[in-house]
Amino acid sequence: MDSDVAIRARGLSKTFGSLKAVDDVDLTVSRQQIYGFLGPNGSGKSTSIRMLCGLLTPTAGEIEVLGLQIPAQAEILRQHIGYMTQQFSLFTDLTVRENLEFLAAVQNMSARDARARIDELLVEYHFEGRADQLAGTMSGGQKQRLALAGAVIHKPELLFLDEPTSAVDPESRRDFWEKLFELTDAGTTILVSTHYMDEAERCHRLAILDRGRLVADGSPAELTGALEGRTLLVETELQRSAREVLLKIPGVISAAQIGNSLRLLTDSTQASAETMRDALHKADISARIGPVEPSLEDVFVAVTHHASSAGRKQQEVPS
């Protein structure tokens, strides 16, 4: 494998009975970058991560991580990766230091190396004075920081984070992401799943999963740039009425109310600003319509839009 590539997967698939949780996914993650998995619940994010780190055997496909064949060499891989989930996987009846000591022992670190590394992490992750505090008595943000410290105790080359910020407040999420950038600056590669658009925007590169399929892959700028000319802002005092009119126009994919405006996403072929003005004029609705910069939320809606399956009940699959 190319020395600049940390993860390469080809034709990755996983089925559970008759349900296809991951469907023929190709993936390439470069070293020393934050690669994001964005998708709704049931899109296959967690299932993909478990296969990539060797915790789950794929039904089909090839995986190479840090030059190792997975799942055949999963045991070797585990010495070089960290893994953190939204549950944080902490022992609530152990102290901060005891949690870190246990995780160091799991990684077969010597007592001397573990002691030095734990002292380092207590400072780096702002636990000075809290080493003897029980993990169960800490706030969500503190538990999150402790879980991350535990995941990197052995200085892994690659870190898998499965929706690690879903249970914490916005300030803790922001501080957590600063830590992630510090890790990549130090040489760590990170694959993180999220359903927060603001977090997705911070990734170096992003994959969007929907119903087990990879529907978009690129930098945030590349993905939003591909929608140039397809997003419009409609300013009107009759937002709800205008929305009903606009959604009937062929080519209008979505119309979301944002404050006192409507944000429109079109397919770029049928729905023009002129068509919208005419439709609103006929409905006696006064409005101003103009272009607006595409956002990652627009990208997400565009690539996960399934007009043909509207109203059809989706099968539930593992996330």
TrEMBL record:
State the Gene Ontology terms under molecular function. ATP binding; ATP hydrolysis activity
Which segments cross the bilayer? none
Name the source organism: Microbulbifer pacificus
Q: Which PROSITE patterns match?
A: ABC_TRANSPORTER_1, ABC_TRANSPORTER_2
Q: Which domain of life is it from?
A: Bacteria
Name of this chain's protein: ABC transporter ATP-binding protein
Q: Which Pfam families match?
A: ABC_tran, DrrA1-3_C
Q: Which UniProt keywords apply?
A: ATP-binding, Nucleotide-binding, Transport
Q: Which residues form the ABC transporter domain?
A: 7-236
SUPFAM superfamilies recorded? P-loop containing nucleoside triphosphate hydrolases
